[in-house]
Write a structure and sequence with these properties.
alpha+beta; Helix Hairpins; D-amino Acid Aminotransferase, Chain A, domain 1; OB fold (Dihydrolipoamide Acetyltransferase, E2P); 5-stranded mixed beta sheet; 5-stranded antiparallel beta sheet; 24 helices; 37% helix; binds 2-(butylsulfanyl)adenosine
């Protein structure tokens, strides 16, 4: 490839990757497999390594972060970043409406109402369509130049997508962390024993204010645009709705379900509506922003020194509240970790009654000096467990400082200290650890056994019906009926769900095992890297530490787990009760979608387990017996009675050779 060709190819690759990023991050509609995408990325990075002079400012390679800065430089905003007047009282919104009507001399004002994102306000400056810099709000006139960090956010275009671009434009929007990403990030932090973030806003702010943009690049941030603060030459949008459309055309995320309001009551209704939907949104919002839609009208009425007159926020009830700590108890988690929990005077926090909040660990309690009788601020972020943030006032009759018990409060086993944490050494003989590890095994991110929630597991453990996870697969209707909460139908539903859970991805299966320091993310890394349960179990500490993102701590826990004979016995017994972990592949996962297979006789080229795993990994299902629902019977050597039944029912019978052709093509 000569220089000219390389330049051309780099351009093509940049355009392609930028297009796929746009489809993935903005349109939520990936059009390419991860594998092909990675190929394009590595081809580009190789070409850019050979021809660094052709690296363009909008190259996706510019998103990976650069060497750490000593400090952030201060930068003046193109246009001042005002703040927003806000209220929680709808009456004040009606007053806002009267004021606008008076100032505009018009009684027909159209408003738009949209979410008030709870993140970090950012200015983005584009010169001739290219992202030139990004900064925090700072004091409104100048902020911190965080351009390298901004570039790592995949939903921020490095180049505006339209052909006609203004010479200079300044855009305002919010950098946020989606709730799912926030939970994942905190999961990863917990795995590493690092401090977690109290809420997505702190996580977004903490991630963006990293001096090392390579750290920011690993933090899943998202950006929503909502205002064009300054635009040169190109025609100004004439309304806020037009402004949002333009932002969308340029390639930004915009919230498109905003309400177009013909009067102020509609805007207030939207606040009520969104408030009821708050827990179902993918991100945290703390209210609704109401804006005058017409730009001419907005310009006429102008701004005060700190905030515009044409917009106001109607806030939601805060997710932070103040209440009294009535007691501090200690909870024992599935790994034996002891967590101090504050029992609170019940309080409504953003629509949910909260009566317990975590205090994380003994150090945290000491640092915050929270004691029984104190008044504290608590916070609930999304569906995350409420946490005690800080002490507001010491109680008149304060309790003594909190101390961790010397033995497990549930089973009386000795306690050991590891870093900032305390652990019960009782293992699965501690009823609390047992209940929680079974509940974890059955939970949604793990084996996903419907109807086997926390309460049911607790009842089963207390009755002695369940003494370990593998006993889940030996439950029967008769046993279930001995529990108060089960009738014939619900028992059958549970058994069906248990049966269904046997087809499970290897990553989920590993996660379900509850290995310490191996959360969902690590479990997926292990599954992708090793490809089978045997290989994961056989991995040495050195093998594990080789994997990017697996540190010494996780590697240690994983090898310890797999050298524990009791744990190996549990895995064996799960596998022999028919649990078949499969590998998720990005290729033709759906080749055999919803096709039912039954196996009979001995296969020569596969073990039965391998054959089943193949079917499941391609989306197919396995059942033990032939029925009218069976699509294929795979018949090996010396087939059993299933063969005759399949013939009778007219079901297609595949030889091993035909089966192989079907699944390995
Ligand atoms: S409009 C000054 N729209 O909320 C008027 N702001 O608490 C321009 N915010 O720092 C801002 N969502 O950055 C606007 N949909 C939205 C918003 C929004 C969040 C931020 C804003 C401000 C903060 C005020």
């Amino acid at each position: 490839m000569n220089q000219e060709e390389a330049k051309k190819r780099i351009e093509i690759l940049c355009d392609k990757i930028n297009k796929f990023d746009y489809l993935y991050y903005i349109k939520n509609n990936p059009e390419i497999s991860d594998e092909k995408y990675d190929k394009l990325r590595s081809e580009l990075s190789e070409l850019e390594r050979l021809y660094p002079e052709f690296t363009t400012p909008d190259s996706p390679s510019q998103r990976v972060g650069v060497l750490p800065l000593g400090e952030f430089a201060s930068v003046n905003h193109v246009s001042p970043m005002l703040s927003l007047a806000s209220t929680a009282n709808p009456e004040e919104i009606r007053e806002f409406d009267s004021r606008i009507k008076r100032l505009c001399g018009d009684s027909n004002i159209i408003y738009t109402a949209e979410p008030k994102f709870d993140g970090l306000s950012i200015e983005l400056v584009y010169e001739n369509g290219l992202l030139a810099r990004g900064s925090t709000r700072g004091d409104g006139r100048s902020g911190e130049n965080i351009t390298p960090n901004i570039k790592t956010i995949a939903s921020i275009p490095l180049k505006l997508r339209t052909a006609a671009v203004p010479p200079l434009v300044s855009i305002r929007g919010e950098a946020i962390m989606l709730l799912k990403d926030f939970q994942k990030l905190n999961g990863r932090m917990t795995e590493k024993d690092a401090a977690t973030f109290a809420n997505p806003r702190n996580a977004a702010a903490g991630s963006l204010r990293q001096l090392d943009s390579r750290v920011t690049a690993r933090r899943p941030l998202t950006f929503y645009g909502y205002e064009i603060m300054f635009i040169e030459k190109l025609r100004q949008p004439s309304s806020h709705t037009e402004e949002l459309n333009l932002l969308k055309e340029w390639g930004f995320n915009v919230y498109s379900h905003y309400r177009f309001c013909e009067d102020i009551e509609e805007a207030i209704d939207f606040h009520t509506y969104l408030s009821s939907k708050r827990d179902t949104l993918p991100f945290e919002i703390d209210g609704v922003v109401i804006k005058v839609n017409s730009k001419t009208c907005a310009e006429d009425i102008g701004s005060r020194s700190r905030s515009p007159r044409w917009a106001i926020a109607l806030k939601f009830k805060p997710r932070r509240e103040i209440t009294t700590v009535e007691n501090i108890v200690v909870q024992v988690g599935r790994t034996g970790k002891l967590t101090p929990v504050a029992l609170l005077k019940p309080v409504d926090v953003g629509g949910v009654t909260v009566s317990r909040a975590t205090l994380h660990n003994a150090d945290e309690v000491a640092k915050k000096d929270i004691r029984v009788g104190d008044t504290a601020r608590i916070e609930r972020a999304g569906d995350v467990i409420p946490a005690v943030v800080e002490r507001i006032k010491t109680g008149a009759a304060r309790g003594a400082p909190f101390i961790m018990p010397a033995v497990c409060p549930v089973c009386g086993s000795p306690i050991v200290e590891e870093g900032a944490c305390h652990f019960c050494t009782g293992g699965l003989s501690c009823p609390s650890q047992l209940k929680r590890s079974i509940a974890h095994f059955a939970s949604r991110g793990a084996m996903d056994i419907e109807y086997l929630g926390k309460k049911t597991v607790e009842a089963m453990v207390e009755k002695g019906i369940l003494n370990s996870v593998e006993e889940i697969y030996t439950l029967d209707v008769k046993t279930l009926l001995t529990l108060d909460r089960f009738a014939e139908k619900s028992a059958r539903n549970l058994l069906e769900a248990i049966e269904k859970s046997k087809n499970i991805s290897l990553a989920r299966f590993i996660f379900a095992l509850g290995i310490r320091n191996a959360g969902e993310h690590t479990a997926r890394l292990l599954a992708d890297h090793f490809g089978s349960m045997e290989a994961v179990g056989g991995a040495s500490y050195e093998d594990l530490i080789e994997i990017d993102e697996i540190g010494p701590e996780a590697a240690g826990s994983i090898t310890r787990f797999f050298s524990d004979k009791k744990k190996l016995k549990i895995i064996d017994s799960l596998l022999s009760s028919g649990v078949i972990p499969y590998i998720e592949t990005s290729v033709s996962l759906s080749l055999l979608e919803n096709i039912n297979f039954v196996f009979t006789g001995t296969l020569e080229e596969f073990t039965r387990e391998e054959a089943k795993r193949l079917v499941v990994s391609l989306g197919g299902r396995i059942s033990p017996t032939v029925s009218a629902k069976t699509d294929y019977l795979v018949a090996g050597k010396e087939p059993g009675s299933k063969y005759n039944k399949a013939v009778k029912l007219g079901i297609s019978i595949l030889s091993e050779y035909e089966f192989k052709k079907l699944v390995l093509k």
